[in-house]
Amino acid sequence: MGIDSFVPVQQQIHQWSDRRKMVDTVLLPMMVFVHVNPKERMEVLSFSTVSRYMVMRGESTPAVIPDEQMARFRFMLDYSDETVCMNDTPLARGEKVRVIKGPLSGLVGELVTVGGKSKIAVRLNMLGCACVDMPIGYVEPTKISNDDTKKL
User: Fold this and answer.
1) Which contacts of 52-55 are long-range, i.e. CB under 8 A and separated by 24 or more positions?
2) What CATH number is given for 65-152 in this structure?
């Protein structure tokens, strides 16, 4: 059908009592991201495996995650050596930083502290933040304010 879709999957090592194994895990269960125009929205709902679009409470229009947020999220998933976790609790805004070392070099996000650990966070509208551990020495402050992230 030509509809661009994305399921966020990452590899993790699972430990059982007798063995360890690398397995693919879905980061956001029961969720598939689609990149469609308004005309294609109804086409997606015609699939028997799709029940509905995610919507804001009290609204009827599908939730939209801006392309730049999705691009940063996909980059983080593709190149991070660490496990990416989703944090759906409200996080205080962090300092805007750019990763300058390691596999995520070039990624722009927010430097936040979660559970006493430094993490780089990428905010996704309605979903919270995708976070990954990040040493402070691997980032540098950017000149971008929190309101200017849409211009990346």
Assistant:
1) 54/126
2) 2.30.30
| Beta sheet of 117-124, edge-to-edge order | 85-87, 128-133, 117-124, 108-114, 95-99, 139-141
Q: In this predicted structure, what is the pLDDT of residue 149? A: 46
List the domain boundaries for the chain.
1-63, 65-152
Bridge partners, residue 44, by sequence: none
Q: Answer yes or no: are the C-beta atoms of 149 and 96 closer than 8 Å.
A: yes
Burial of 41 (0-12, 13-18, 19+ CB in 10 A): middle
Condensed to tens digits (0 to 9), the pLDDT of residues 24-77 reads 999 999 899 999 988 888 888 888 888 888 887 788 888 889 999 999 999 999
